[in-house]
Every structure is written in C-alpha cells, then in structure tokens.
Amino acid sequence: MSINDHDSLAARAEAGRAMAQQVLSGIDIGGIADWSDYQWMTMSQLFAEIWTLPELSMRDKRLLVLGVLAAVGKQEKFGIHLTSALRNGEFTAAQAREIPLLLVHYVGHPLGSDLPGVAEDAIRAAA
To answer: Exposed site from 37, 41, 70, 111, fewest CB < 10 Å?
Structure first.
C-alpha cells in the first residue's frame, strides 16, 4: 500500500468515524489509531459509504436497523440505536414506544417481549 492509499483510507475512516458519531449519538468509538482491522472496515464502508447514501433518510435507515436488531435478538444494540434516534430527534417518545409494539408481533414473543422495556430505558437515557 502506498502512502497515498493509506491517506485515502484514513480519510474514509475518519469520515466514517464522523458518521458513526452521528448514528451512535453519544457512544465513544475511540480514535482510529486504536481500531482493529474490522473497525477500519466498518468505519470506511458501513459508516462512510452505506450510512451516507442519499435515497433513505437517517430515520428510514434507523427503522430498518431496529427491525433487524429486534429480529436477531440484539436488544442491547436495539437500545443503543433507539436512544441515539431519540437524541437525534428522529423519533418522539410516543413513536419509540410504538416501534416495539409492532416489532414484537413480527419477531415473536421470545425475541420481542423485552423491547417495550428497552424502549422505556432509551426514552429515559435520551431525556
């Protein structure tokens, strides 16, 4: 890899870091010098390229991510994303309470039964 390639990758990773800070409002993702190869890829691809695509709004993307996180039982990450969405003004508290009510019927009781409580925690954390 040439120095120019490294500079370009570093610029993409830094752009991804900035977007990740917006998406994950308030979560410390550390500095790029401390990242693993996986974190470099995530920042330079997922956050620098995918989250910045123009056709879906941040709120649209967030709804998709929340649905996937609920479907695979990642309630902690669901809470992180919902808290961030509330802090960013993407949802009202009433909308944050309604999201789990819809999702639990699609993901099933075992995966979704804790989501209303996670939503209440997110609302408190974002306040």
So the answer is: 37
Q: pLDDT digit string (tens) for 108-124?
A: 988 889 999 999 999 99
Percent of the chain past pLDDT 70, that is, above it, reads 94
CA distance 70 to 103: 7
Radius of gyration of the chain (CA): 16
Whether the pLDDT of residue 2 is over 50: the answer is: no
Which residues are CB-neighbours of 78 under 8 A, at least 6 positions away? 66, 69, 70, 115, 118
Residue 13, CB half-sphere, CA atoms under 13 Å: how many?
20
**Nearby residues of 58 by Cβ (< 8 Å), 6 or more positions away:** 22, 23, 51, 88, 90
Question: Taking Cα atoms as reference points, which of 76, 79, 72 lies closest to residue 119?
Answer: 79
118 neighbors 86 (Cβ within 8 angstroms): no
